[in-house]
Amino acid sequence: LTSTSIKCVTQESSDTLLQYCKTPIIENYIVVWLTTNIDENKKSIEQVRHSFNSFQLFIDIDEFFAFILRIKEENLFLIVSDLFAKKVVSNIHHISQLLPIYVISNDRLKDESWIKQFRKIQGIFTNIEPICKKLKHKLYLSEKDNIPIEILNSSSIIIQYLMKKILLYEIEYDEKSKRNFINFAREQYCNKSNIINEFKEYYIPSRAIWWYTRKCFVYLAINKAFRKQNVEHLIKIGFFIRDLPQQINHSK
């Protein structure tokens, strides 16, 4: 019941990118970039990694294929270098979790007719800006279409048992529990420091519904933990799960 870990394939000169890419996948998506040269694309890679919580970088095509085939649940959003594009797309286009594909090239390809065979290809781009913009829009629509989970309606006996212990105060939570969750959130959501700081300073139980409906890192962490049936993560955020139904009852 642990999260999948990201292992980033990168060059020795890109230590900061490597460190970032070792964070666990706790979203329901992964942005994957298969590139031919990290050093030449550092600024663009930095932009992507600061824009998306789940980001995976590859320069080795075999490692890339192995990773893609291991992913069974998360949606995949692919950015691929034009030098790899034909081989990659023809081999993985059928994978159901693979959604949009963005081909990135330093120059427009001489022959672009082949992309018409593959409906998932969103186009060929010469810089990362429009790709990030389109990715954010796709993720927004995907998140908007997701039906929020019903916390008390899990079919897993383990999760039902855990929810009973949380909601009946059989698990103790205090300010230290909140601090532990905040530290956990900082590790998982490196680019959400402002809203995590806001949560740290201003969260109170009577605002639980407001925080959940903001669909920020709290919403994402809870839904991911239930979807993956990750007991460890559910326990970490148990204080918040307990606050939700309490506020609902008080507001009736």
Report on this model:
- With 252 residues, the chain is α/β, with parallel strands linked by helices.
- The chain folds into two domains: 15-145, Cobalamin-binding domain (Rossmann fold, 3-Layer(aba) Sandwich), CATH 3.40.50; 157-251, no CATH class.
- It is built from twelve helices and five strands.
- The chain has helices at 15-20, 42-51, 61-70, 82-92, 129-145, 157-167, 175-188, 193-202, 208-213, 217-228, 231-236, 238-251; strands spanning 29-34, 55-58, 75-81, 98-104, 121-125.
- Helix 7 (175-188) packs antiparallel against helix 8 (193-202).
- The protein is elongated and about 65 Å long.
- Residues 1-12 have low confidence and may be disordered.
Task: Briefly characterize the structure.
With 252 residues, the chain is of the alpha/beta class. It has 2 domains: 15-145, 3-Layer(aba) Sandwich (Rossmann fold); 157-251, no CATH class. The chain has helices spanning 15-20, 42-51, 61-70, 82-92, 129-145, 157-167, 175-188, 193-202, 208-213, 217-228, 231-236, 238-251; strands at 29-34, 55-58, 75-81, 98-104, 121-125.
